[in-house]
Amino acid sequence: MAEETETKQLFSPSDVSLHASRKDCWVVIHGKVYDVTKFLEDHPGGEDVLLHVSASGDATEAFEDVGHSTSAISMMNSYLIGSVEGYMPPSASEDATVGGIVQPQNSRTMQRNKGSPAQNTFLDFVLPLFMIVLAIAAWYYLTFVDKS
Question: Which residues 6+ apart lie within 8 Å of 51 measured at CB?
């Protein structure tokens, strides 16, 4: 695998930006450049998704937000053509650094960092309970009290 990495090219961001069409589409994810031209028609989300992220520059965040399967991630290696010179992640945080080196976040890390859902408030409990009590009171009134 080390030999594969050595043979891959380094591209400048301006080089990558020239490849954002249906006939020639490159995508940058975690600083690695992928030629996805042959994959455009086969992409489950459609070719427009890849063309959009290609034109936007770095597709890392969009790729992680979708939560791709492990088979999709392993498929990426066949499209790898190189990496971006001087790549800095768009949202490098202190949490993502280990010993001063920025580590790319995987989808599990991203999901864990999104935080827990908002806590339920008292109103989330009381409002449905009030609606049930109101429905029972209306039923009781219409069934027993209104007939008298």
Answer: 20, 21, 22, 25, 40
Tokens of 53: 């992220």
In whole angstroms, how far apart are CA 107 and each of 9, 95, 99, 122? Answer: 26, 15, 21, 33
| 3 state SS of 101 | strand
pLDDT at position 135 is 96
**Mean pLDDT score, 10-29:** 85
Name the burial class of residue 5, with classes exposed (0-12), middle (13-18) and buried (19+) by CB atoms within 10 angstroms of its CB: exposed
CA 42 to chain centre: 19
* Cβ within 8 Å of residue 49, ≥6 positions away: 43, 62
What's the pLDDT at 56? Answer: 78
Whole-number Å distance between alpha carbons of 35 and 78: 9
Question: Nearest CA to 110 among 85, 126, 125, 93?
Answer: 93
110 Cβ contact list (under 8 Å, min separation 6):
64, 65
